[in-house]
Amino acid sequence: MLAMNKANKLGRFQDINASYGERPPSAKPSIRTKRPDLVGRPITLIVQIAVEHEHTGLHEMIKKSFQDTPEVQQCYYVTGEFDFVVVMTVTNMAEYEAISQRLFLGADNIARFKTNVVMDRVKFQVAIPV
Q1: Are the C-beta atoms of residues 46 and 118 closer than 8 Å to each other?
Q2: pLDDT digits (tens, 9 = 90+) for 106-126
Q3: What integer is the mean pLDDT of 18-46?
Q4: Is residue 66 domain-shared with residue 18, that is, in the same domain?
Q5: Is position 42 within any domain?
C-alpha cells in the first residue's frame, strides 16, 4: 500500500513537471515537500550576493527578481560582507548556470556572488520553538 501511494505521488509529480513547458514560470504549480529531490530538484544551492550600490530602489528591483524566480525558495536581506542570501533548488548545474546568468551576471547592480552547493541537508525545520 505504501509503495503504491509513493508511486501515485511520483506519477503526479512527473505529470506536473511535464506541464512546466506549457506555463510561464510564475504560473508553475508548487508542491509542499521537505524533500525537493523527490520532485526532480535534487540540488540545493546557497548563494550569497553583494550589491554594487546601496540604494533602496535598486534593492527593491533585486528583491522583486528573487521573488519572481520560482527556483528561489528563500531570500534574506542580511548584514555583513554580502547583502542577500538566497536558497534555491535546481534540477542540474546547467539550470543553475542559466539562472545565475540571468539573476546575477545579467543584473546591473550585482557586484559579486558566491555559491555553495549543499552536499547533505543535516537539519531542516520550519517549526519555530516556543
Answers
A1: yes
A2: 888 899 999 999 999 888 887
A3: 65
A4: no
A5: yes
